[in-house]
Structure formats: structure tokens, C-alpha cells
Amino acid sequence: MTTLPPSLSPSRSQTTCASLLQELQIIWDEIGESDGERDKMLLELEQECLNIYRRKVEMTRRCKADLHNSLAQFESEIAKIVSSLGEHSFSFSRGKGTLKHQISYIRPVLEELRSKKKQRVKEFTETQSQIAKICAEIAGNGQSMMSSDPQVDERDLTVKKLGELKSHLQELQNEKIIRLQKVDSHISMIHELSVLMPFDFLKTVSGIHSSLIDSANGQSRSISNDTLAKLTGVVNSLQQEKQKRLQKLQCLGSTLIELWDLLDTPPDERKRFEHVTSLISSSVDEVLRQGSLGLDIIEQVELQVQSLNVLKASKMKELVLKRQNELEEIYRGVHVDVNSDAARQILINLIESDNVDLSNLLSSMDDQIAKAKQEALSRKDILDKVDKWKHASEEEKWLDDYEKDENRYSAGRGVHKNLKRAEKARILVSKLPSIVEHLTAKVKAWELEKGIPFLYDKASLLDMLEEYTMLRQAREDEKRRSREQKRLQEQFAAEQEALFGSRPKKPLAQTNATVGTPTSRRVSTPSGKHGVSNLKERRETGRVNNVIPLNFVALPKDDPMSRGN
Fold first, then answer.
1. What is the residue-wise DSSP string for 318-348?
2. CB 257 within 8 A of CB 277
3. pLDDT tens digits along 444-486
4. pLDDT tier at 251, thresholds 50, 70, 90
5. Per-domain boundaries in the chain
6. Which one of 104, 114, 388, 458 is most buried, counting C-beta atoms within 10 A?
């Protein structure tokens, strides 16, 4: 129980009251107060003292109640803060002792929790502010959201909730980074395209959003959906325009080259448009030269094409005849007969009649030239074998003439070369049947595939091969008969020598053999060596020469095999 201080102890209070009453009695005696008045005044004093005591007690009671109320409020606030912060592991007790002691014990705990809550609310506010700011930037209303602070729900200030907000903020920050990269990429692409196709870069970009050009005033670049959509649209539009211009320049460049080739334009004139013709084989991504796709370049090339077309119209007759020469040269090279004079007259009549589109006529002739090249390519293998056959036939004829020359082994200039050529010619002649057989098979396969006969300078190649084979067989038979006749003559001479002891004179036909070089074109054939007359030999030789074309280049005599190879 609480004790009163010494100044308020009963004994001292009573002594003080007694002293005061004595002093009051003296005063009353001096005044002359009656006993009734004195009793009345003493009763009033006693009542006033009781009232004072009552008031003091009441005040003390109220103070106690206030302390209890404060303590309860502190505990309630602590419970709310602990719950909002999610500090479920937090525990405290009010302690022991008087109410004031308990309050003094709990107050620091409450202040610490309040400080922790304030710091947590600050973190929530900052996080939500950043989230709201990025969301506003993405939505495109960043300025209107900057002035208002977000409302924090103080009922849930847990670490989990804060972590969720920070995770969401991190996602938004990553999204912002990606959007900024897209914006920068689009702006960079627009700048590159503005270099290729000169246009006002600043005006184009600022027309999408002012922050994309001027961000020095503290305003960050716009990353809103609307801005990204507009940037993407501008980039796609510019890329389509780039593709369109490149295709146009490529078409114009190809036309330039065709006209240059038609008109035999000198290289110096062509160099003026190298920057255009170099784009023909370029892809869209390979075009990097500044201003290479400008409208002024396109207009310049279009004017040049128009000028060349005018010049082309004036030289069309010359160009058509030039194409005809090229076509005839192709056919002539593969031994296909064409009526050049008639074809030229038809072309001249068409040009002079003005009833034909000269460009279409040139295009048609280009198609004929392409077809002629294909036909020449299909004949090439056979013609190569024909050349080999012709060369082998010539070597066969030379060898035949060479072996008829009785002086072929006489000492003289070129003898060793002729011997060497004869050795190679014999090897090549031995392959002639195989060459003719393979060539005939090739020609038949070609004719079966094409459905037309293979003509060689107006003559059927199969007929030429068949006639050659028959004549060659006839010559071989004649050579065998000649050898047999010679053998019989030698046998007869030997028998005569054995009977009479002397050798008969040579036949007159053998003594009249003409001596000449083995490389001469025509050599008389000794009658003793062949069983046919000189007249028949010459007639058969003439027939062979008519079968085998003569318009070929003969090889040097010291290398007869080079053409066959």
C-alpha cells in the first residue's frame, strides 16, 4: 500500500489543524464570535476539507484509468503493427510493477515498431511509385501520374507483400529496358534508312514523339505502346519503300546493261552508272552506300534509259542484223545449214514495213539465239567425234600414200619425222572402226531423241558414215587381193629362177611408179601393189574426198595425234 508523504501523515496533519484551530480561536475571541457561528464555520471547514479529498481521490482514479487505457492502447497498437509487418515471431510482456513502470517498459518497444513500420511504409511507397511510373510510361500517360502518390495499404506491410511488389517492379524495369532497346533500334534503323533514302530524319522521328529527339529537359524517351506501334509502322513503311526503290533501280540497271550491250556503249560511259548496276545482284541488306536509293538517282537513271531507248530505236536495223550474224555464226560453227540471204531479206522487209515491234523482234531473235546455243550444245559431243573421225581418215590416207612411196626410207630431211608420224598414224587407223562405231551409235541416239536426222552441212551424217564404211571395206578387200597377187607373182618368179637360173624383169607397171614426198596430197598408186587400175583408184579416192568434209585445219605432221586427243 502506498504511504503518504511525511508532510501529509495523520499526526502531523492533526498537529497542524490543532495549531490552526487555536489560532482561529484566538482570532474569534478577539472578534467576539458566538459559539454558533464558530460551530458553523468549523463545519464548513470540515466539509471543504472533505471535498478537497474527494476531488483528489477522483483525480487519482481518473489518472489510473488513463494509465490503464494508455497501456491497453499501446498493446493494441503493438499487436496491429506486428500483424501488419507480419512479425509473427515477435512477442513481448508488459512486465511487472506499477502502471507507470509498465508503460515505461512498453513505450520503447512501441517506438521501435513504429519506426520499423514507417520505414516499411516508405519502402512500399517508393516501390509502388516506381511501379506506377513505369506503368504510366507504358500506358503513355506518364506526366499525369507523376503528381499523385500511390496509396499504401498499411494493413499488409509484410515482407512477402513487399517482395511481390519488388518482383513486379523488376519485371516492369526489364520490360522498360526491352522497350527502350526497341525504341533505340527503331530510331537507329530510321536513321540508316534516312542515309540510304535521303529524308528529314529529325522531322520524321519528332513527328512520332517529341521525347525521341529532345530528352535534355529531363523527359525520358517515350516507351508507350502507341510510340512503339508508330515506330514499327514507320520502319516497316520505310523498309517497303527501300525494297521498292531497290527493285526499281535493279530493273533500270538491268535495262541499262541490255541497252549498253545492244548499242556497244563504251566503258567510260558505263562507269557513270556503276553505282546503279552494282545494285543488280545486291540484296536489301547489302545496300549501304549513302544516298544510293535517293529519288534523284532514280530520276537520273530513268532519263538515261529514255535517252538510250531513243538511240536504240534509231539503230534497231543494225542491231537486228547483228543478232542475225550471231545466229548464223552459231549454226555455222556446228555445221548446220541456214539460208542466210533469205533470212536477212525477211528481217529487212519486217523492219521497213513498220508493222512489227522491234523490241519484240529483238526478243524473239534472242530466244532463237538461246535455242541455237542449246542445239549447238546438244551437237557438240557428236561434232567432236566427227572431227576425230575426219582427222583419223586423213591420217589413214596419208599413211596409205606414205606406204606406197618406195623411197620413204631413203636418207633425207624429215625422214625420222615421217617415220614417227607413220607409227602414230597406224595406231590411230587401228582405232578407226571403233571410232566410226561409237560415232554411229551417238548419232542414232541423238536422232532417236530429237526425232530428226543429224545433218552435217546439208548431208546426213549417218549416210556419210555408212558410205565411208563401205568404201573402206572395199579398199581393205582390194589391198588383200593385191597382197595375194604379189605373193603369187613372187612365188612364180622364184619358180622361174629355179628353172632357168635368172630372175625375170619387173612388170612395166612397177617401173613407172612416181617418186614423191609422202606428205603430198595425191600420189600415184603402183599397179603391182594393188590389183586395180590407177583410174579406179583415183575414182574411189575422189568419192572418199566427197564424203569427208575438207574445211578443217590440218595438224602439223610431227603431231598427228593432237587433234584426236
1. HHHHHHHHHHHHHHHHTT----HHHHHHHHH
2. yes
3. 899 888 888 888 888 888 888 888 889 888 888 888 888 888 8
4. very high
5. 18-119, 148-240, 244-314, 316-405+417-495
6. 388
